[in-house]
Task: inverse folding
């Protein structure tokens, strides 16, 4: 069964902290994605990766960075968390050449 | 700018009736369209898709219709069941350039 896991379901951090969100998939997918979901805005792509050590900016990369050292793991990093980064963060993965993405359960991050 | 729009934030339907969820997009280069379903505290799960070369795709109770000239797609659920109550996201684009709508919350009343 397809599985995408995210390290935390809920996270509370202070402004200025460095935050790491981890995502692991066990499907040997080439592509991995990070989205944030906000009310009225749907899912917006932050970064994606189509191979180990490769990354591409999505629509809203400002304030974020990513790391993909292994095929199964894709990390999202908030270098200095701000209150406007309070959101639901969703990780997804897919096979190369395939449109269907598999999502993790999400991490609800609150920055105070 | 939102390239994929779901103009109805919510929809309420009686069990057994048809649910119709709508989605509009702006980019004529989009070549693939998907619907995802999301329950609370879970990530979205794939429901049904359609490529731009087709105008209809059916899977059991779920049918997606694509009108390329109007840049519009819709999801029909017949008959609707209480377990269909969820948020439905429309997505459109290419393999690494998928854009999502804001979602429509469907409530199916017994």
Result:
């Amino acid at each position: 069964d397809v599985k995408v896991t995210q390290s935390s379901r809920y996270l509370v951090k202070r402004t200025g902290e460095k935050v790491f969100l981890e995502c692991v998939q066990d499907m040997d997918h080439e592509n991995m994605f990070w989205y944030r979901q906000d009310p009225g805005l749907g899912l917006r792509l932050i970064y994606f990766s189509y191979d180990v050590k490769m990354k591409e900016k999505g629509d809203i990369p400002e304030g974020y960075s990513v790391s993909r050292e292994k095929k199964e793991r894709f990390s999202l990093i908030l270098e200095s968390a701000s209150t406007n980064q309070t959101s639901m963060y969703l990780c997804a993965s897919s096979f190369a050449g395939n449109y269907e993405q598999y999502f993790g359960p999400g991490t609800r991050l609150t920055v105070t | 700018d939102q390239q994929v729009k779901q103009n109805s934030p919510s929809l309420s339907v009686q069990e057994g009736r048809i649910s119709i969820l709508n989605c509009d997009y702006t980019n004529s280069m989009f070549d693939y369209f998907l619907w995802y379903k999301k329950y609370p505290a879970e990530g979205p799960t794939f429901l049904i898709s359609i490529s731009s070369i087709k105008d209809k795709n059916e899977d059991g109770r779920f049918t997606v219709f694509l009108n390329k000239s109007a840049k519009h797609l819709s999801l029909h659920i017949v008959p609707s069941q209480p377990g269909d109550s969820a948020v439905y996201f429309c997505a459109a684009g290419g393999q690494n350039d998928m854009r999502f709508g804001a979602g429509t919350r469907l409530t199916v009343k017994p």
